[in-house]
Amino acid sequence: MADIKTFHLPDLGEGLPDATIVEWHVKVGDTIKLDAPLVSMETAKAVVDVPSPYSGKVTKLYGAAGDIIDTGAEVVDIEIDPNAKQRAEAEATGHHHGPKKSVGSPAPDDAGKVVASDDGGEIESNGKKADREDEGTVVGAMVSGNHVHTEQVSTVGGVKAVPAVRALAKKMKIDLSRVVPSGAGGVITMKDVKDAAANGSAALGAAPVRSAAAQHLAPTLPEPGPAPQRTPVSLAGKPVRTSPPGSQAMGQPEQLKGVRRNMARVMAEAHANVVPTTIVDDADLHAWIGKQDITARLIRAIVTACKTVPALNAWFDGKNLTRTLHPHVDIGIAVDTDDGLFVPALRNADVLDGAGVRAAIKRLRSQVEDRSIPASELSGYTISLSNFGMFAGRYATPVVVPPTVAIVGAGKLSHDVVAVMGGIEVHRRMPLSLTFDHRAATGGEAARFLKAMIDDLGLPN
Fold first, then answer.
1. What EC number(s) does its UniProt record assign (predicted)?
2. E strand or H helix that includes residue 358
3. Is the full-model pTM beyond 0.90?
4. How far apart are CA 306 and CA 315, in angstroms?
5. Fold entry, domain 4-100
6. Strand locations in 17-141, DSSP E?
7. Which residues 6+ apart lie within 8 Å of 12 measured at CB?
8. Beta-carbon neighbour count of residue 400 at 10 Å?
9. Where along the chain do its domains lie?
């Protein structure tokens, strides 16, 4: 009797309960070797190549491209080849199967002063380099022998592909900008590159021709005819559609995936587990001398307030009713993207000067945009900042994400009429909103925190 093993989706290192199938590297009936690429899965931050845990013949695939697979659910059935190399039952696969770490898990004791370089990440404690505990986990670990590899999708010139695909395209002299993508989210796969090489449709240096992509995007249209009659009701007087809903049509339900799916979970958890209260006020910037970096001044003001009122630079465990005050200030900077909300951590903001803050933020934004940011940089911050005023809005009620206690919202700058001794003046002012978890901090602490920010922002430079 054939020995058939079912492979279940492991924790891919994101701490998320599911992942989306991007591309199968095998089909039913194929023979696969141990540790060979089995399937590409999209998590909230990267596309991960999952290796085969067995050697044998593929007998069943549990899903197609675009399907969402829960962590621990069936992925594939493989008929074991008794004559091929197999991994021992107790041998590690390179994927994390232990209990998921919460971003609220306290880090080891920070006994000494925390020091960091401007590029963030590396710290010193008591004069020695120390690695702060990673609050996240490894993104996209794929094992081949004893080495772990990471494959993340990057976008260059509008082309989405993992490094291995780009390397193959370079080797085969294929122009990726002319390859028709078949992966989820417009990602170019290995098969796309091989197909393009086989049909010669995307060779480097070839004369411009009507490519397969152009034909796909601009098919031959039929001769125009009379416009179809659209009516809101049927002959029976009931609301109807005048045409079948298409999978790409606006107004149709779509399954949230990747970053947006994770964002929805995080926001729901925050709503269920935090007792939020918001206070607002305005910082008067009239005394500023010359042009200044607004974001750097905001970061400095938050650091000053954290030193003045440490209660808001903290983590709170609502189940055990414990509070952790932090000697360092790691600020989560909300970054809005088309894929959803990212909150990378600006590490050790309390030891960075203005130039260091600007360089670190530029690095984080760049990593977010090309989806190369490590998972460890998206967790473990001690307080958050949402600078929504760069778009619109004066005041808001930003969401506090556990285990943090507070988030600062900075609104759009305005010129307001202000009463002064002997008359009125027009001053430039910054609206500030501070949302805090009222279980962990008092209204007085929040008010003093906001006042400390306003006082620092009111300084000339």
1. 2.3.1.-
2. helix 354-369
3. no
4. 13
5. OB fold (Dihydrolipoamide Acetyltransferase, E2P) (2.40.50)
6. 18-24, 31-32, 37-42, 47-51, 56-61, 68-70, 74-80, 114-116, 123-125, 128-130
7. 19, 41, 43, 48, 50, 71, 95, 139, 140, 141
8. 26
9. 4-100, 258-457
Q: Which two tokens stand for residue 64?
A: 């197609």
Closest CA to 86 of 205, 151, 3: 3
Contact 192, 160 (CB under 8 A): no
**Residue 134 pLDDT more than 50?**
no
CB 52 within 8 A of CB 34: yes
Rounded to an integer, what distance in angstroms lies between the CA atom of residue 188 and that of residue 176?
Answer: 8
C-alpha to C-alpha distance for 420 and 252, rounded to whole angstroms:
56
- State the pLDDT at residue 243: 55
User: 258-457 architecture in CATH?
Assistant: 2-Layer Sandwich (3.30)
Cβ-Cβ contacts under 8 Å for 137 (sequence gap 6 or more): 11, 13, 14, 15, 96, 101, 375
What band does 107 get if pLDDT is binned at 50, 70 and 90? very low
- CA 33, CA 376: separation in Å to the nearest integer? 32
303: helix, strand or coil: helix
